[in-house]
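Q: What would this chain look like folded?
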Amino acid sequence: MLSNGAGRRACLRWIGAIGAAAVCGAPQIASATALSRVRERGALSVGIYNDMPPFHDAGKGIDVELAQALADALGVRLTLLPFNADDSMNDDLRNMVWRGHYLGYGPADVLLHVPLERPLIEQNPRVHFFAPYFRERVMIARRLDRLPRLDTLSQLGQQPVAVSGQSLAGWLMLGADDGAYRSQLSTQSKHGAQAAQALARGEAAAAAGLASELESVLRGDARFAIAPLQLPRAPRSGWAVGLAVKRDADDLAEALARAVNELTASGRLQQMFERGNVNWQAA
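A: My prediction, written as C-alpha cells:
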C-alpha cells in the first residue's frame, strides 16, 4: 500500500505518533560546532520534501520561503536539498538529519516539516526536534450545492469522494464506518491538493486531505466548505510541525529557533502561509 508520495508520508508520520501530545525539545548547552560550520561554509543546507504542495512544488512553496528566511537570518546563502520520502519518517530523519542517504546525498543542516510528536522523538535519540511553525489537521472539503450539510459521513450517501489512497486521509476514509465508503472513494490523487482539484472540477462531491492541501486549492471559494474530518481516529487538534537537526547541533538549533520566533512575531511567517492560500494555525 505504501509508496514514496507526500500523502503516504503524512500517514506514516501520524500512525507513528497517534494519541501523543506534541513536544518541543528545548535547546541544550550551546556548542559552536554546527553553527560555525554553517557560517564558515557560507551556506545553510535545508532538507525539504519533494512534491508536497503547498509547501514545495517545483521549487516554490511555503517551506521554500521559510528555508530562505532561515538562511537570511543566519547571514548565509541557502542551499536547498529536496528529496523524496523514504518508507517512514524514521528513515527520513536518518537520511536527512544525522547520517545521510546511501545514494550519497544528505544529511542537511536542518530538515523542515517534521512532526513534533513524542513517539517519533523517543524513537530518534540522534535528532533534536524543535521550533514548531504551524499546526496541521485532517479535513474534508465538500461542494455546497451537492452536500449542503455534512455533520456525519453517512450524509455522503453514494456521492464520490476524492482522496489520495496513500495518505492519512485516505487511510482514515478507507476504514471509516467499517469500510462503508470504500466503493465511492476515488484514490488516484497523489496528494490532497490534487484531490481538491478534482473536487473543484466537479469530479467529486467531497475531498479529504490535510487542511493545508485542501485550503491551498479551495480557500476563499464560496462554492466549497472545509471542515474537520469527524472520525474517532482523526486527531481533533492536529499536530505540530517543526524543524530537526542533529542531536548535538544545539547552537544551530538555538539560532534557527530564534529565527522562527522572530518570523512568527513579525507576521512574516503568517504571510508565507497566506501566499500559499493556507490559513496559518499557530502550533
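The beta strands are 43-49, 77-83, 110-115, 127-136, 138-143, 161-162, 185-186, 206-210, 224-228, 239-246.
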